[in-house]
Automatic annotation (TrEMBL):
One Pfam assignment: Beta-lactamase
Catalytic EC class: hydrolase
Keyword Hydrolase annotated: yes
Name listed for the protein in its UniProt record: Serine hydrolase domain-containing protein
Keywords tagged on the record: Hydrolase
Entries under InterPro entries matching the protein: AmpC-like (IPR050491), Beta-lactam-related (IPR001466), Beta-lactam/transpept-like (IPR012338)
GO molecular function, one term: hydrolase activity
Organism the protein comes from: Streptomyces caledonius
EC numbers, comma separated: 3.1.1.103
Residue stretches making up the Beta-lactamase-related domain: 12-318
Length: 367
């Protein structure tokens, strides 16, 4: 694979396609300190503001890769162990209804092998956030303990370590353990351990903040209505505390490519923790994204041309995003659309990955 060139015309064609289905789309490709930006559509349907790589948006479950990185950093410093139990750090929290925090380890949480029910699939939570209820409930405030309690009201899906199931509850608990082990808030950990060292000026954990700290992309929803002409609603402002260390982060394509590039290049974790993070288990069909593997807070997929890329996708009200790159960090790409309908991770975004990481057919990546 020639990492000195990219078929920018092919990528831009897909970006233009994305902007016919969503208000706007942006793709940023970073290689060797140089960037190529492809954008189409708008960041704000009211003003017609164009899509820019410095604009902030909600990254959804890409947050999980940040969270796992923080956990592994603390593990490297012996502040915690991947084999520690949930009970050790959060005594008494995960008990009852078939649950036992003594049997669930930090490794189980980061690898989605704990068996804990995903609180986001709770019927009441879905009523609040996956349809018309979103407009009424998008400013609701949640604590991590409340989210865990919702999960524990459901029986475990399987015994810890004996299956695989994507569960946001795992990363709520991981975030709580991070705070207990470090004595810092999740927002402080993101700032001091990742954002500040990498100079990620647009990346932060908002907590209960409902707006943005800088220029941002407006996020739109059709409230899960399937009609192509269903009205869209601006849900840019929301309280993302239901995302916790699962999906609350705000970032930019500029920052995301810098973060993943540094992670894949081994600049954020020592070799032993890199090996832990990137030991992939095939995702069982029908459990998440077919054909993908999952490590610790990060996934992998082998593209049609044989290239394997690592990263994560994310969805939160008003936003879909995808962040993947080659191990070593030679080439990384971030994608974002500011609408939450359809299912880009299963069609549009993988097409872009194929174009970005295909054998070179165009010109060099330029700044």
């Amino acid at each position: 694979m020639n990492l000195q060139a990219i078929d920018t015309a092919a990528v831009q064609k897909l970006v233009d396609k994305g902007a016919t289905d969503y208000p706007g789309m942006i793709v940023q490709v970073r290689e060797g300190g140089r960037d190529w930006i492809g954008s189409a559509g708008v960041a704000d349907v009211g003003t017609g503001q164009e899509r820019l790589p410095q604009q902030q948006f909600r990254v959804g479950s890409i947050t999980k890769t940040f969270t796992a990185t923080l956990v592994l950093q603390l593990a490297a410093e012996y502040a915690l162990s991947l084999d520690d139990t949930v009970e050790k750090w959060l005594p008494g929290l995960v008990r009852g209804n078939g649950h036992d925090g003594n049997r669930i380890t930090v490794r189980h949480l980061l690898s989605h092998t704990s068996g804990l029910f995903a609180f986001t699939l709770d019927e009441e939570l879905m009523r609040r956030y996956m349809g018309p209820g979103l407009l009424e409930h998008r400013f609701d405030r949640w604590t991590p303990e409340e989210l865990v309690k919702i999960s524990l009201s459901h029986a475990p899906e399987f015994e810890p370590g004996e299956g695989w199931s994507y569960s946001n509850t795992n990363f709520v608990l991981a975030g709580m353990i991070l705070e207990r082990a470090s004595g810092m808030t999740y927002a402080e950990l993101v700032e001091h351990r990742i954002a500040r060292p990498l100079k990620l000026t647009g990346t932060y954990a908002p907590g209960h903040e409902t707006g943005y700290r800088d220029r941002y992309v407006h996020g739109y929803t059709r409230l899960m209505r399937p009609e192509a002409d269903a009205p869209s609603h601006d849900v840019s402002e929301q309280n993302a505390s239901y995302g916790a260390a699962v999906g609350e982060l705000i970032s930019t394509t500029e920052d995301l490519t810098a973060f993943l590039g540094a992670l894949l290049a081994g600049r954020l974790l020592p070799p032993a923790q890199m090996a832990e993070m990137f030991t992939m288990t095939p995702v069982p069909d029908g459990k998440w994204l077919d054909g993908y593997g999952y490590g610790l807070g990060i996934s992998s997929v082998k593209l049609a041309n044989g290239t394997t890329v690592h990263g994560h996708g994310g969805m939160i009200a008003g936003n879909w995003s995808y962040l993947y790159g080659t191990l070593g960090g030679e080439r990384v790409t971030a994608q974002h659309v500011n609408g939450d309908w359809g299912c880009p991770p299963l069609d549009l975004f993988p097409e872009v990955l194929e174009a970005v990481f295909a054998p070179a057919a165009g010109g060099p990546v330029t700044a």
